[in-house]
Amino acid sequence: MIMEEFILIFRRDFNTKEEQPSPEQLQASVKLWQDWLGGIGAQNKLAKPLQRWDTAGKIVKSNKSVTDGPYAEIKESIGGLIFVKVDNYDEAVSIAKDCPILQLGGNVEIRKATHAED
Amino acid sequence: MEERELIPHLFRTEYRKMVSVLCYLFGIKHIEIAEDIVSETFLAATEIWGMNGNPENPAAWLYAVAKNKTRNYLKHNSIFEVKISEEIKRSTNITEELSIDFSSKNITDSQLAMIFAVCHSAISVDAQIALALNLLCGFGIQEIADAFLSNKEVIYKRINRAKEKLRDANIRIEQPSLTEISGRLDTVLTTLYLLFSEGYYSSSQQTTLRKEFCAEAMRLNYLLIENKTTNLPEVNALFALMCFHASRFEARKNGSGESILYDDQDETLWNRELIEKGIYYLGRASTGTVVSRYHLEASIAYWHTQKVDSTEKWKNILQLYNQLLIFEYSPIAALNRTYTLSKTNGKQAAIDEAEKLKLNDNALYYALLGNLYTDVDDEIALKHYQTAIELTKSAEQVTTIKRNIAKLHIK
């Protein structure tokens, strides 16, 4: 079985005030994330160790100006990303469908890793 | 102590110390000479004590004789002297009168140095375990063969090949430096963990021997705790894990050697003292920022010492298994996580997750599916149990599964 590597990028609106989850919702989502990630781990489909990312960050614009934080003019920003090893896009999609970011109004972008010979 | 028990007892406690001290002195090239000298010392003890009675201080007697034998060996064996003189000159200040130091400090130092020499990635993990049992713990080839359900020749070859490889790689027997510890501690801990597991999970019927393996793994682990440079959080975590597991040693098997499942174990047989010890070392492991797999496994084992079936317990165990699997995949952790999920999220949720695991050649996988389907759909449960029986190689597992099948309600 040939496993392919995919990146799953989670985005949601961290900007609009009314879109933010309550502290209770956030608390509950911690368990959902752990269960979801543990489930992917249990299927041996995590391709790389998990990495936490800073929530602030910087943005460089075309005029080379630099601003703090990803919350500039774009609504959605990256909440996190993981690498999985699965057979195909269908399988990657079915994993993404259980991603807790969806319950917080976010979305998941999926990309397959390509190689020179592809 | 009875006279006929004294020598085997000393052999168990002193052989490994003397071998370590001499190996530390001679270097990796001359392990066999160190072993020969110590064996001859014990032979002399058997003969002389048999005639003259036991000496006042038997250990001191052994050390003194081993010292003499070593000096004589060096004096009379010119080839050997040429070979090792450089190394010995380097490691001792005395060239005329060789210092052979059996002080307790040097014994501890030598044993630590030997742990790092033997648990070396230059040789396979199986070979590390066999060599550790032989050199660091003083088990005979026959005993090791019994534990591995193998024969003497295989183990003998494995040990000799391992020694050759260590010699070829020119591994030094020395105190590990701080940088070496960070690079090599992982290998050492893995070997100690597997040595413990060999005793704990082995299907060998020799209970006493299996217990001794566990005790030896704990002793070597404790040596690392006693040494300041190796007394690191993950070392304490592994020790805590071993304490928690060992606390259930007596409760895991019944009189006829059959396994007793966790749910059916007699709690009063759990060793409270070891549980307390485990809690203490888990606390000591929780300093600093390192979370190793041993921290996670020790925490899981801690929760298993709490027999009460609370939601809090299972929720904690589930999160620990999640973290363990995110950290490093293993089929057994995947199966245990899914079982735990049935306790926190119900059987249907666990079945959904279990069916994604697809461990189709794993008997335990089907045993788990059988367990999860019990009371949900007993017909399907039966099918899974039957597949598990077809796949397993363990007679013990068959007995357990048949017991579970008997509980099903089949029309």
Question: What's the quick description here?
Answer:
The complex is a heterodimer of chains A (118) and B (411). With 118 residues, chain A is an alpha+beta fold.
Describe this protein's structure:
The complex is a heterodimer of chains A (118) and B (411). Chain A is an alpha+beta fold and 118 residues long. Chain A is 24% helix and 28% strand. Chain A has one domain (4-112): Alpha-Beta Plaits (2-Layer Sandwich). Chain A has 2 helices and 5 strands; from the N terminus they run βαβββαβ. The radius of gyration of chain A is 16 Å and the shape is globular. Chain B is an all-alpha fold. Among the domains of chain B are: 1-102, no CATH class; 114-218, no CATH class; 232-307. Chain B has helices spanning 3-26, 31-52, 58-76, 78-91, 104-118, 125-136, 141-147, 152-168, 178-201, 207-226, 233-246, 272-285, 293-304, 311-327, 331-345, 347-357, 363-373, 378-391, 395-406. The radius of gyration of chain B is 25 Å and the shape is elongated. Classes of the chains: A alpha+beta (118), B mainly alpha (411). Chain A binds chain B through residues 31, 34-35, 37-39, 41-44, 46, 49-50, and chain B through 315, 318-319, 321-323, 325-327, 329, 333-334, 337-338, 341, 345, 353, 356-358.
